[in-house]
Amino acid sequence: MNDEYDVVIAGAGPAGGQCARDLATRGYDVVVLETEAEDEFPRQSNKSTAGTFPSMMSAFGVPDDVVMNYTENVVLESPTDYYVRRQPGAVLEFADFKRFLVADSREDGAEYVFDAHVTEPIMEDGEPIGVRYNGSEEVYADIVIDATGPSAPIAKKLGVSDLERTNHAIGIEYELEGIEIDRQGYADLTDAMMLRLDHDLAPGGYSWIFHTGADTAKVGICYIQNESHQNYARDDFSVDDYLQHWLETDPRFADASRIEGKQHRGSAHIQMPGQLYTDRFMAIGDTVPSVDPLWGEGINKCMRSGRAAATTADACLKHGGLEPTAENLEVYETLWHRDVAPNMDSRLLMTELLYLASNERYDRLMADLSRLDDDTLARANKGDKRAILRLLEPGDLPLLAKFARQRLTSR
What are the φ and ψ backbone dihedral angles of 296, each rounded to 5 degrees? Predict the structure, then answer.
């Protein structure tokens, strides 16, 4: 291993791995520092539900052999109703997917250092010129990228990350076998990805069942530590308790059992992003907040941010005399808002409204979706304000007033 590179990336997740792929393909010297040991990778970081859509697969050249199951439908459930929409998708084996990114970028020349716990940036004249890891080990680079997720050790020390605890989402997922996938009275989840809006199961969030083939599925819950969670949550319940409660009370899981070793935990922040970059530095992946209300496609967002950072780095590095100052890295923010999360304000608006709604309103939402055209939900999810308005009804005025009060008090 050298100690000087064009780019050093902390974190070998989808964002860091894709950024390394793109940079290595362009011929740059790039090194990725990953906390986990290579022989166990990914173990602790095997966190994602790994649901995605064909557009991501084709855009990033993801091979079929990392797919657990191709799905045909997306399903929304409320406490007493459901809505089904035809939408091809794929549930990835997340560990295989992450290992693919490492192997593929290595073939093009990217270097990886495992068992490398990044702690801080190395500073010179007020700018990061590398990173320090494992206490005293150092590596230097023209550009430093933090892809470590919410821990964000470099971004936080550079004052770039602004992740607020009140917007922190936490989740847990099991992989189960013996599930009754097509239970009478529920939506048929054969080859489907399902999200359930139900504060009794995930107060201030959602739960999910992603079919992975036969009678197996990924099953989990996630909630945000928001006002809805405070209003609906049980004082004596942790995220683990909520998932166990669902498994014990939903008849689809009556004969189900956990698959050994298949438990995943994760977290993200649901808020507007703050600063994304500074001199010689960019934050990518879950180091930056996420705001998508439904079908968040966290993998896709991470991959897109990694690509945007690689494009930005290339724009600087391919011109030998162009220093990667904050001014010259500004294009990264433009690409991020265009390609990673366009219409941020309205998407966050829908997210906050969605989790403020009651269980009764979730039931009515299923009926509303059934009478509207199939594109309404998709457009609302992308932040189309007209589509969001179509999902509202006169009875939502108190909800909108509550939302407005929250927005005013948070400023």
Answer: -55, -25
Q: Where are the domains of the chain?
A: 4-50+95-163+271-340, 67-92+166-269, 345-410
What's the CA gap between 48 and 91, in Å, rounded? 10
67-92+166-269, CATH topology level: D-Amino Acid Oxidase; Chain A, domain 2 (3.30.9)
**Nearest-angstrom CA–CA distance, 130 and 121:** 6
Report residues of the chain scoring pLDDT below 70: 1, 45-46, 164-166, 291-296, 406-411
For 250-291, what is each residue's pLDDT tens digit? Answer: 999 999 999 998 988 887 777 778 889 999 999 999 888 776
Q: What span, in angstroms and rounded, lies between the C-alpha atoms of 39 and 192?
A: 33
| Residue-wise DSSP of 262-303 | EEEEEEEEBS-----EETTEEE-GGGS-B--SSS--HHHHHH
For residue range 335-379, list pLDDT tens digits in order: 999 998 888 888 888 888 888 889 999 999 999 998 887 788 888
- Write out the two tokens for 69: 């199951």
- Residue count of the chain, please give it: 411
